[in-house]
Amino acid sequence: MKSNQGLIFSVEKANRKIHVEKEFAAPLEKVWDAFAKEDQISQWFAPKPWKVESKDFNFAEGGRWLFAMVGPEGEKHWSVSKFISIDPLKGYVASDAFSDDQGNINEQFPQSTWHADFVDKGDSTLYRVDLVFDSEDDLNANLEMGFQEGFTVCLNQLEEQLA
Predict the structure, then answer these.
(1) Which end of the chain offers a freer environment for a tag, N or C, measured as fewer CB atoms within 10 Å?
(2) pLDDT tens for residues 92-114?
(3) Taking the CB of residue 102, how many other CB atoms lie within 10 A of it?
(4) Coil/strand/helix, residue 161
(5) Do 63 and 38 meet the contact criterion of CB atoms below 8 Å apart?
């Protein structure tokens, strides 16, 4: 298992926020494409042995990504990300929620807004994201479902993909 060197994961319960940072030894355009192109994000966004199955991917303001994380037994957990704003090669804001296979949000699960930015550092790129939740209960539920462990695995898979 890869070390989590260079990964920062912090929780600010009072602000209902999770902050994640990871620096990748890859140029900005390559890291950006790993988030902005369906054929690339689907390779790393689910912790193995799970995989991503996209039903709809439109990385544009007002667009969405409707996808399922598919488990080894074929079970599917659907999610929808709606892209609120995109500043190419700099960052994006997206709402994120569990859903059904049509993109109807499941209100039983926590929802968040992702504020992501990408910093060009020459030979590397710093990815930073803040996940903001409506309530501290939603933040806690997200953590209890294993977000930190799962997203850490995914970011390490992205690091391998970019190498």
Answers:
(1) N
(2) 999 999 999 999 999 999 999 99
(3) 10
(4) helix
(5) no
